[in-house]
Write a structure and sequence with these properties.
Two copies of one chain form a homodimer.
Chain A: H1 11-23, E1 29-36, E2 46-47, H2 51-57, H3 65-73, H4 79-87, E3 93-97, E4 102-103, E5 110-115, H5 116-121, H6 123-146, E6 152-154, H7 162-174, E7 179-180, H8 183-189, H9 199-204, H10 208-219, E8 224-226, H11 232-243, E9 249-252, H12 257-270, E10 277-280, H13 286-291, E11 299-302, H14 304-307, E12 317-324, E13 327-328, E14 344-349, E15 355-361, E16 372-373, E17 375-380, E18 383-384, H15 390-406, E19 423-426
Parallel strand pairs in A: 6-7, 6-11, 8-9, 9-10, 10-11, 15-19
Antiparallel strand pairs in A: 1-5, 1-12, 2-4, 3-5, 3-17, 12-13, 14-15, 14-16, 17-18
Helix pairs in contact in A: 6-7, 10-11, 11-12
Chain lengths: 427, 427
């Protein structure tokens, strides 16, 4: 398996480069803008995620012998193209919203400025990363909000592509998840990993008590015991019998969770395990989490709905040429309109610090009190501006997200479908 | 970035191994079964995909120094566990449905037989791969059917994780897609790649005619010109003017496609370009493809809806311990029931060769005329049974899928939500 990134690309980018090299337009100075025409699924905001991963990929976006041989095999044999690719290293500038920032329809979340041939080559990789990671982070932010202060754990690896799982764990952590089940996400990004046992471990043993004893012998009494393999009531009794009242937590993974959790809390308290926490993990999404608000639950594990974006597995970001040689350009036929020209963007806030509008302009925006500029330099002359590690980039994105979301108006947190929480004003 | 696969795993698998090593149950001979309790989204069948990719990963599922260091950093410091992992290489057997096979609720699509500790370790990787790839293949099969004999091209890389994109292209090809835009999928799996130009290429140029001339000069007159950047009518006239009546194809990427395609066909014919094909690519899914049945369209490009599984981004396959030391086991509390014991499975057919039932049994199934056994050996003693290359595995899966789908009853192809096309009988 190649570890390079250059072939994670749509073929048409290379045929466009070939044709542009031949007719002399490849060097035209170009600006490509990444934005979403609308928020998916009636969402009220979206969360930008993936920028840090894009910066990890950029140095690996090279056409070595293996890549060039693959292109030849696929019929891309144009000598001028192959020579150009062999020498290619991105030399342009990238600016954009800080990772973790919120975005709205028309927000210019990333702008790539480079000669046309260099900028067009990055289209697929940029969109793959930002569309995927932003979809997950946008769903995750709603789940974290629905959970209020209770911790949420990401455990969806098994419901998405094996590498997408690592990126999903990262996007969830960015949006406030407390931990992940994914060990590789722990390694790459320093996200705390969590998990203790599955039903298989209980079924492996001759009886539930043996399984619980084995787990406690190895993981300690502070572990989480899964109590719903046979009978939840009996499972809880056995758990406390084996672990004593200092048992860390029980996990419920099936059944009607509000009822079960309430009953489990009563039983644990009766058995003296008053500090034993209750974790729930069965097919949760932001709505189910909100529905458990009144239940005595101490933490949530979320899988499928997190890694599939809870109904919006992609956020519809597009990558459009908006300027070349200083001339604004845009598609003009029916449907799918864009606005030409390079943009600046600020988020406007009222006197209380609540966000009121996204101001996007082709020129400078006259500064008002409470305006926060949204664009930051990411890459200059092909080099990332920051030398932060992947772990540091994630930590910074998580902190930035926390600040940005604190300014959202209250109605942004409604789970129902609706309009964008703030209006995008084009000046 | 690690190229190994061992950390693409949920933490709880390792804590279970640690506890089972400590209490002596790690070696209990176990069978884990992969199956779906129901088909997602009212689908009438699902397509198994990913088995070939799992076989690619299996030899890389090893705990080297880098992996073991990562585990220590995450607090997994149990010496017995780490020693065992350092020596780990899967030694068990895997059997399952042939890749490309159809499956239904309860179909035992994969069974892993190994000592508990070895089998439990593979859970996340097996499910990640099979859930993702099968979701894409299941959506792709419906799109191919809706397109009848017209070719469908996969072009969704930008709407999913950058590595998931490669797997999605593979799953689509398995289910009958003609080509992909993804260059890495071309390299790894030998899938034909396709694509010529985007709106950016037209906007880069001073006018549409210059862009078309540049493309034809490099890609030849048989290329596909994208004609909807400004005005479709004028775009088509300019295309034929520049390319002549031998122009290969035009592409429409916006607007009301049935109307536009009909108009474009008339105009092309008037201009003498009677053999120029019409490709359409705007937000298509199986329903939109079906809606274009009567339109003069020669090929479809599908992006977002393909790579997101067209409403079902995962297929809900689970990995359950069904037997240990020869004893059938199963979870018994409310919800999420499983059936214990190792299974055999055959597909039953009527005299005309149409599939009528999926027969799943814990014992041998008494053979009837028209029964086709569904389980094949994949791995024996830790070694893949076949030494086929990734490209050969995909070709075999595509061929198998084509044969299996030919036996489906006609109602399986209804696009509306409904019941499983054949009943699963448990004997």
């Amino acid at each position: 398996m190649s570890t390079g990134s250059a072939l994670l690309t749509d073929r048409y980018e290379l045929t466009m480069v070939a044709a542009a090299l031949a007719d002399g337009t490849a060097d035209r100075e170009s600006s490509f803008e990444v934005f979403a025409r609308r928020l998916p699924h009636g969402r009220r905001f979206a969360v930008l995620a993936g920028t840090g991963r894009l910066l990890e990929h950029l140095p690996r976006f090279r056409f070595g012998d293996e890549e060039l041989d693959a292109l030849r095999e696929q019929g891309l044999t144009d000598a001028r193209l192959l020579d150009w690719l062999a020498d290619f290293a991105f030399s342009g500038d990238i600016e954009g919203y800080a990772e973790g920032e919120l975005f709205f329809p028309g927000s210019p979340v990333l702008t790539v400025r480079a000669p046309f041939a260099e900028g067009v080559l990055l289209e697929t990789l940029v969109l793959s990363i930002l569309n995927h990671d932003s979809a997950i982070a946008s769903a995750a932010a709603r789940m974290v909000a629905a959970a209020c202060e209770r911790p949420v754990i990401e455990m969806g690896s098994r419901r998405t592509h094996e590498q997408a799982a690592v990126a999903a764990a990262r996007a969830a952590a960015l949006a406030g998840f407390a931990a992940t089940s994914n060990l590789e996400a722990g390694r790459r990004y320093g996200i705390p990993t969590a998990g203790t046992s599955a039903h298989a471990f209980t079924l492996l043993h001759d009886d539930e008590a043996s399984a619980f004893r084995a787990q406690i012998a190895t993981l300690g009494v502070d572990t989480t015991l899964l109590v719903d393999t046979y009978d939840v009531d009996q499972g809880i009794r056995t758990a406390v019998e084996v672990a004593g009242p200092e048992l860390g937590a029980i996990r419920l993974d099936s059944g009607d969770l509000p009822t079960l959790a309430t009953h489990a809390r009563q039983l644990l308290d009766e058995l003296g395990a008053t500090k034993t926490r209750i974790l729930v993990t069965s097919d949760l999404d932001e709505y189910a989490i909100a529905g458990l608000m009144a239940a005595p639950v101490d933490g949530y594990g979320v899988g499928t709905s997190l890694v599939t974006g809870s109904g919006a597995p992609t956020v519809g970001l597009v990558y459009k040429l908006v300027e070349r040689d200083g001339v604004p350009v845009a598609k003009r036929s029916e449907g799918k309109h864009s606005v030409g020209g390079r943009k600046t963007a600020v988020r406007r806030h009222d006197a209380s610090g609540t966000a009121t509008a996204e101001v996007v302009s082709s020129g400078p925006v006259p500064a008002q009190d409470g305006d926060r500029p949204l664009l930051v330099d990411l890459v200059r002359g092909g080099q990332p501006v920051s030398d932060a590690s992947p772990r540091e980039l994630l930590a910074a994105a998580r902190a930035h997200h926390e600040r940005a979301r604190a300014a959202l108006p209250a109605e942004a947190w409604a789970l129902s479908r609706g309009e964008s929480a703030i209006e995008t004003m084009t000046e």
